[in-house]
Amino acid sequence: MGDDLLSYEQAAELVACRARDLAQRRPATERVDLADAAGRILAAAVAADDDQPPFARSTRDGYACRVAEASAHLTLPVAGLTHAGEAPPAALPAGKAWEIMTGAPVPAGADCVVMLEYVERVGDTIRLVSSRRIEARENIVAKGAQSRRGDVLLKPGTKMGAAQIALAASCGYARLEVYVRPRVAILTTGDELVPVDATPGPGKIRNSNAPMLAALVAHAGGDPVILPTAADTAEALDDALELATQADILLISGGVSAGKFDLVEPALARLDSKIFFTGIRIQPGKPLVFGEIASSGLKPYINRPRSEGHFGPAPIPVFGLPGNPISSAATFHLFAAPILAALAGSNEIYPRFVLAELSQATDRKGRPGLTRFLPARCEFNASVNELPKVALVPWHGSGDLTAFAQSNCFVVIPEDKGSLEAGSMVRILLH
Ligand code: AMP
Ligand code: MG
Question: Are residues 209 and 323 in the same domain?
């Protein structure tokens, strides 16, 4: 691997470009109950079935009045009372106030609601206290102020979280049309790997990447399919790839560095693949491979043909992730997750970097010219006007799962920085 590798930014832009193209494919859709919609990607718009609010609504407990009369601090007899859930029987009579609760419809004729706390109530009359002013429309949300009947409130491609589910519920959507999750084949490679429930013999290790990648895929909105582990031979890899390539995305772990048994790249070359890059100036994760396998001429997927009209005979994005667990996880978040999001129909494809303050200097010098994504722990208990504080987790390289499990983010160290001072503002990627 020479110095002609792409920088992190170049690779990220290339992946984002492919993701934007892939987002043009329309995934198949299915209907789910609103209660099962969390994390799903909306396939059909959610529209307002009525004006919101459907009536002029009071935002306070208090008295609906005419602003001219209330502002003049007139004594106003209380003509009636409306709770949330009732409709006022009539318009507000002139020279009167109407007692009203939060969420209740404001009677016609009233143009403000004076908060309970700001009136003197004597018997059945109220008066705005002399120290307070009131403006027209204060404490009233007008009918239709939030949205109008027929307005599109959530577009296809929206990821359904709690707020979006609440909005859909408020518009009467008991079920939603969402995109089918992309099927992500996970192919781990390596003669050293044994299953989780086996005791490793000499020189062997348990396959931790398969369950890790399955968890990452599920969390990112994909449907993980773990394939049998492939041995480090060209034949084993060729056989495994034939199974894998009927998925919507293929993640291969291991076999991409420059070692003698790093067979992934040649195997992809034997298929009709386009390779976009075979390494990036990042650490960890430098040997990452990204390409697309043409789906023509591939054997049908065991028991599970690709759904008709799903993505059609489109090429299948493939990532050759470095085998070291932290490298696999970092490159998944940085590069595979955007492609997965695009194939899932999501309109949010970019990794979500946020700012934090480094609480300790990064003493580790990196190799110059590599953007580093180092496992770190971010503490979120900072006061509201401080950035969260983040510190690197001590590690023994990118195979150190003990360290990785203590971390909750990666700190980004730009390629032109050897180390960073305590107090520096840094970008982090939560994981
Ligand atoms: P490779 O990228 O195949 O050269 O692997 C790099 C390192 O990651 C080696 O130490 C492998 O043993 C380790 N590794 C590869 N695949 C896995 C896996 N599925 N689970 C855990 N470690 C792995
Ligand atoms: Mg290997």
Answer: yes
